[in-house]
């Protein structure tokens, strides 16, 4: 048995708004093993980021959470906010999407990297400084003694991105949640990010990658989960998934990537407030049957899961 790290069981999140209740996440169930790179893909607005926020306990204040999240045997969804603060950054860290927003422009980069080590690992200033030097060198931000003292505006975009990863990994977390790490960056920088993540992963850290960049997910992941309209509709090993996606939405999603002819998915993305009854994909599905108006079961085929009547 692989070593279980994160277990998410029946997690749902709703957010009340002036227009109605947003069903952002519905019944999310999956797990991530130690050292594993697990990607959550799916179209914009399908609830990927909210699921990441639910795990980190960083949801919008009015969001309503239910379900259970366990990390390394601890039920983190039941911790007090104070206890959760100790977990955040230490056991599970997130890497923000936009380094320009995530870094404090008025504080030296070295100080920002050292801070989580002092806060979460109780390291002395000297030790954290030595580790920061190592981290800067590790991520090719050189010379460290100069770069450490610089402010974010003195960094290039790529360097800032690497500094963000250095910040996220400074306290040696076991799991990193990276939401859209390739958003708005060019192919070359994307390769850099992939290389950095692989490097961190090979040192034993697991990843939850949240992305609608199917190519990036393919290059990075051990396993893939597909999100549609707030629900995970398929979970599979990367190779089998790309060879033979089972859920009709997964098939449509892969047909929509440039390498496969960019065939658009027919129909419109559903509302997250008035979600379709039964299978949420049925209004757009070419294989629709009568029973698709009822909630489909999650069919488990030796660890490969698909939420679809065709396989029930
Ligand atoms: N603070 C909020 N208040 C109300 N609704 C929200 C809030 N944040 C997100 N939502 C809604 O929750 C749903 C899921 O949003 P989420 O950001 O998780 O999607 P996503 O899959 O990450 O999309 P993207 O790929 O564009 O980042 C959307 O319908 C969104 O409008
Ligand atoms: Ni998002």
Automatic annotation (TrEMBL):
- State any single GO MF term: ATP binding
Cross-referenced SUPFAM superfamilies: P-loop containing nucleoside triphosphate hydrolases
- Identify the Pfam families for this entry: ABC_tran, oligo_HPY
Swiss-Prot/TrEMBL catalytic activity = Ni(2+)(out) + ATP + H2O = Ni(2+)(in) + ADP + phosphate + H(+)
CDD domains given in the database record: ABC_NikE_OppD_transporters
Localized where? Cell membrane
- What is the membrane topology noted in the UniProt record heading this document? Peripheral membrane protein
Q: What does the record give as EC number?
A: 7.2.2.11
Chain ranges of the ABC transporter domain: 6-254
- Keyword vocabulary terms for this entry: ATP-binding, Cell membrane, Ion transport, Membrane, Nucleotide-binding, Translocase, Transport
| Record GO cellular component, one term | plasma membrane
| InterPro entries on file | AAA+_ATPase, ABC_Ni/Peptide_Import, ABC_transporter-like_ATP-bd, ABC_transporter-like_CS, Oligopep_ABC_C, P-loop_NTPase
Write out the GO biological process terms: peptide transport
Q: How does it assemble?
A: The complex is composed of two ATP-binding proteins (NikD and NikE), two transmembrane proteins (NikB and NikC) and a solute-binding protein (NikA).
Q: What is this protein called?
A: Nickel import system ATP-binding protein NikD
